[in-house]
Amino acid sequence: MTENSIADRAETVHVEAAQQPVQMDLAGGKRSLYLLDGMALVYRGYFAMIQRPPITATGLNTAAPFVFTSTLLEILDKYQPTHIAVVFDTPTPTHRHKEFPEYKAQRESMPDDLSAALPYVQRLCESFRIPTIRVEGWEADDVIGTLARMADEEGQLTTYMVTPDKDFAQLVSEHTLLYRPGRKGSDAEVLGVPEILEEWQVQRIEQVIDILGLMGDSVDNVPGVPGIGKKTAQKLIGEYDSVENLLDHVDELKGKRRQVLEEHVEQARLSKRLVTIDRHVPLEYTIADLKRQPFDDEALKRLFAELEFNMFGKRLFGAQFAAPPQRAADVTTVSERSPDLLDQIAALKTLKDTPHQYDMVEGPQERAHLISRLSEVSAVSLDLVTTSLNPRSCEIIGLAIAMEPHSGAYVPLPDEPDAASQVLEEFRLPLFENPQIDKIGHNIKFDLVSLLWHGMDLKGTLVDTMIAAHLTVPDMRRSLDYLSQALLGYRPISLAALIGEGGVQQERMRDVPLAELCEYAVEDADITLQLWNVLRARLEETDQVRVFEEVEAPLVPVLAAIEFAGIRVDADCLKELSSVLVEQIEAAAKRIEELAGESFNLNSPSQLGTILFDKLKIDPKARRTRKSKQYQTNELVLARLAHGHEIVRQILYYRICTKLKSTYLDMLPGTISPKTGRVHTHYEQAVAATGRMQSSDPNLQNIPVRTEQGREIRKAFVPGGEEFTLLCADYSQIELRVIAEICQDDRMIRAFLDGEDIHTVTASRIYGVPPEVVTADMRRQSKTVNFGIVYGISAFGLAERLDILRAEAAQMIEQYFEEYPGVRRYMDEQIVFAREHGYVETIMGRRRYLRDINSKSAAARQAAERNAINSPIQGSAADMIKLAMQRIHSQQVARGWRTRMLLQVHDELVFDLHRDEEEEVKEVVAQAMMTALPMSVPIVVEMGTGDNWLDAH
């Protein structure tokens, strides 16, 4: 069907953990107690999905309850605990606050959307019938420590402390273990005494407290001893056994270390007391009170429905579970929740209780009558029923049409291909290619591309409800079923109910009884029509009519034409490039081992770090990762060291080659269509908040251009025949030109008007030298500044990228703003506007809503501020190339060109250029791209032609 699979982000996160098979408890079948550090897990869940949080129809951020539920179900299913509890902090000051008022004083307020989600975590615990424990005046650490001690004393019970907090390492014993939940798909870690001793490099578990006290904790504002980090603390405790003994023998130390310890004796003692977990909290609970109880199924069903946790609901209650989204009362936020979710669920209408008239149209006379009715309408909603979700290979087995709400018709197609084509042909001119009838569909590009592969087109205005939803209700998932429930209060027939759970074998559609298929298909068309009536009003309410009608809707047929055309790829060239890369990979690996003086696993960051920084000592200041404590060996780190060390250059080269081979050269041949010898990518409009399109299946927007080896892959992309050549048209520095246009900085605009190189101009002004003496390195640094500042780069980030001191980077940023004051003014004004309105806009008026722009969380707020600054820039550039593509496509059709547009890659368009049309096409393309948006800043388009993509670029 035409359903789009973009939706349901939240339900694809942590799926692996949630579907683990049930296993024996880690304690070997003994009784086990799991104590969950509630607030630590809640914060972990919230920030784990901070970039793309799952949002319900009512605007609730469910990241924290989602990850919490995932972790909880993993524990319950995989380890089958006999006892369990969740422990939370309270706002009441503890003995630590009384002794040290600055304790945790610097912590930011809880983010607003996390605060709103907390009651749901409590309700989850209640529905799972898991005790939640809060003790006024005590931290969760102390309560968990006390419960673990009680369980240990009771015996025959193994305790698992479920938390990412490092402080709990001090509590580990023979029967009390630390359970660290996995992150980003990794498995959870269970650490006992041997693992903690190894990780902390101590002889006894209690020495963890000494190390924590010496190093302090910036998160909790525990001061520690200045200048003493974890390594130094480990060394000191290794020699002196404890903080107390160290302070008694401080006179044995030398130099600055002795001085700092002598000056902070009491602070060291205080810090140790602050980090020590108290294991004697007065509790009203016994271990027996924590015995696992059966779930409250009805409460869980209600809660999963309210939170839109379909995945968890189906897992616990079967495939029939369906979580209806709450009705959205407002475009972006909903201040009132349904007081009774059961009332809401009951209020959802279905086909069974909705009067409707869905007609089966089987014979020639019935089809003729339907076609006659089509001549009386100006718009229809249509939906093709297909045997797969691949428009290039699917068979069309039916056509559903709706002309008014609650009514419609279904035209089944014969099984025999020629007969099916004849039926479709009956609708070609009266419907499909009738420009007088608007076509409404949900992901209508799928229907259009499918028809193109069947020799037909869709003409007239195309209206896509998925795109309209993307513009007007951006926080919602965009599946048809979801939007129907959220915006219409109507639950459609599910695909799973029609053909079984999963729905991946869509060929089963042929086996569905015709009467059921008619109801299902026409309902989709009917719902789409009703959705359009709702979304059309929302487009007006949110001032998105112009973006929809001028930018997005007219782009659908353009993208369909690109996908249908495809780009020819030379499989033999890919094979040859792969062979060359194999040789280069082997040569690089051999050279790396020669330079290292031994063989090791080049793909192991741990082994690589040991070789580079322990054995070869190429960087005495090498950093380690926080989690694994391994040396950092990412590309940024290695690039900074490459100029002085051949082995680092070889490693970078090895990584580039192996990634290119696996990601592109091994993958691309399988995407070449055997029918056409071309690769047919898929473009998605309703994904990025900025309006940028995304290419997928395969992604051709990420074919590398920055390295010589990556660029070689473009050689395999070739023209469609001898009479064609490839044409590349690329915007030059488009985002910088958009910045100049939006901020109207006189100096920046003048540089573009005069045709100067903006990076050289910036370097000249920052460094205070004439343009003619600007060096290549100065220009490179200024290029980083030009692109980085408007995307919120900090002095620290700039220093890292340029490998310079932070103070030097801060000075460069300040000088930049002095030279381009309009940029700083624009940035400040955008943030103010966003705080007042909750969104920012592109030149065309495309909105980006910023939920966290007024958040109490500095991290969330700053991320929103960066988006407030860069979204109008990225979005305006995206709108510009979309408008240009429409104009070019329109001219291509009107002039009957044999030239075809093949690819859109960010700021670049690629064409299969017929040689006889070269001059005309170049003129039209250049004009369309340069004038897509009226701007005072000149737009420059660079063009090239060649026998492959590399030569043309």
Kindly describe this structure.
Helix 2 (38-48) packs across helix 3 (63-79). The relative contact order is 0.07. The chain has 4 domains: 10-290, 5'-nuclease (Rossmann fold, 3-Layer(aba) Sandwich), CATH 3.40.50; 348-566, Ribonuclease H-like superfamily/Ribonuclease H (Nucleotidyltransferase, domain 5, 2-Layer Sandwich), CATH 3.30.420; 568-679, Taq DNA Polymerase, Chain T, domain 4 (Up-down Bundle); 735-874, DNA polymerase, domain 1, CATH 1.10.150.20. A hairpin with an 8-residue loop joins strand 5 and strand 6 (189-191). It has 953 residues and is α/β, with parallel strands linked by helices. Helix content is 48%, strand content 11%. The two termini are 38 Å apart. It has 40 helices and 23 strands.
What's the layout of helices and strands?
Layout: H1 15-18, E1 31-37, H2 38-48, H3 63-79, E2 83-87, H4 95-99, H5 112-127, E3 132-133, H6 140-154, E4 157-162, E5 176-180, E6 189-191, H7 193-200, H8 207-215, H9 230-240, H10 243-248, H11 255-263, H12 265-275, H13 297-307, H14 310-317, H15 341-347, E7 357-360, H16 364-374, E8 379-386, E9 396-402, E10 407-412, H17 417-426, H18 428-432, E11 438-441, H19 444-452, E12 462-464, H20 465-472, H21 480-488, H22 495-499, H23 514-541, H24 545-552, H25 555-565, E13 567-569, H26 571-596, H27 605-615, H28 635-641, H29 646-665, E14 678-679, E15 682-684, E16 694-696, H30 708-712, E17 717-718, E18 724-731, H31 734-743, H32 746-753, H33 758-767, H34 776-789, H35 795-802, H36 806-819, H37 821-837, E19 839-841, E20 847-849, H38 858-895, E21 900-905, E22 908-914, H39 918-930, E23 941-946, H40 949-952
Parallel strand pairs: 1-2, 1-4, 2-3, 4-5, 7-10, 8-11, 11-12
Antiparallel strand pairs: 5-6, 8-9, 9-10, 13-14, 13-17, 15-16, 18-22, 18-23, 19-20, 21-22
